[in-house]
Amino acid sequence: MPHDASDILVELTDVSKAYGQTQAAVNAVSNVSFTVRRGERVALLGKSGSGKSTLLNMIAGLDRPTGGRICVAGSILSELSPAAMADYRRERVGMIFQAFNLIPWRTALQNVELPMVFDRRGKAERMAAAQEALTAVGLAERMRHRPSELSGGEQQRVAIARALMNRPELLLADEPTGNLDSSTAGEILESLSRFTENSETATILVTHDEELAYRFATRVLHMLDGRLDHDSGAVSV
Ligand SMILES: Nc1ncnc2c1ncn2[C@@H]1O[C@H](COP(=O)(O)OP(=O)(O)OP(=O)(O)O)[C@@H](O)[C@H]1O
């Protein structure tokens, strides 16, 4: 299928991140360039400390590059005002973390409803949408439970429902199965695949697990010491 420039959702150009000053600086990410198309599923694969989370956090707008630029849907992130950055994170990006990051005193339903509290939909409509999302991830019977009353796999499915609630253009997943046993990890990966396949949502999955990366992604970018390892086929297309 032919692609054109308008297919490109994310474009990183020479992105670097150094922590600390001068001689003592740690170059967590060095001159990374790649693009992600709408609907594409990309994995960032690398060992612990290779810079994957730093890179993902910069794409999420949670951290700023010290060099280069990140452009998402035509906006250069470093040029966004704080208010525009908050809109970007709320409206365009969904995130899933290894530690699930659910709010412990809210039920599954209330956690999933959360990204919608700022939009114009009324409470009843938001609740109906959250119920539908939880049903889709197989948690129809668990909606009124708090995170501590759910298994790890169930908590991550709540997090997936929450992340996809606002139909983000970009889903960022940082080791989403890192805290789960291998069969639960497989189920979570299947849920993620089901919801992102044939959808407009592009996904960037960060993992150190090679099998997981190749099972999920259509393109695997290898990271090594803060750089993309182009010899591994990690070419930007
Ligand atoms: N806030 C910080 N201050 C200083 N150095 C940092 C900071 N955050 C990360 N680093 C360093 O940057 C490098 C990349 O870290 P990063 O967490 O991005 O790697 P990673 O590939 O995601 O690793 P892991 O899989 O263990 O999370 C590491 O050497 C780390 O020690």
From TrEMBL:
It is an enzyme of class 3 (hydrolase). GO terms for molecular function: ATP binding; ATP hydrolysis activity; transmembrane transporter activity. One of its GO terms (cellular component) is plasma membrane. Residues 10-237 form the ABC transporter domain. It comes from the Bacteria. InterPro entries: AAA+_ATPase, ABC_transporter-like_ATP-bd, ABC_transporter-like_CS, ABC_transpr_LolD-like, MacB-like_ATP-bd, P-loop_NTPase. PROSITE patterns: ABC_TRANSPORTER_1, ABC_TRANSPORTER_2. Keywords: ATP-binding, Hydrolase, Lipoprotein, Nucleotide-binding, Transport. SMART domains: AAA. Its EC number is 3.6.3.-. Belongs to the ABC transporter superfamily. Macrolide exporter (TC 3.A.1.122) family. This is Lipoprotein-releasing system ATP-binding protein LolD.
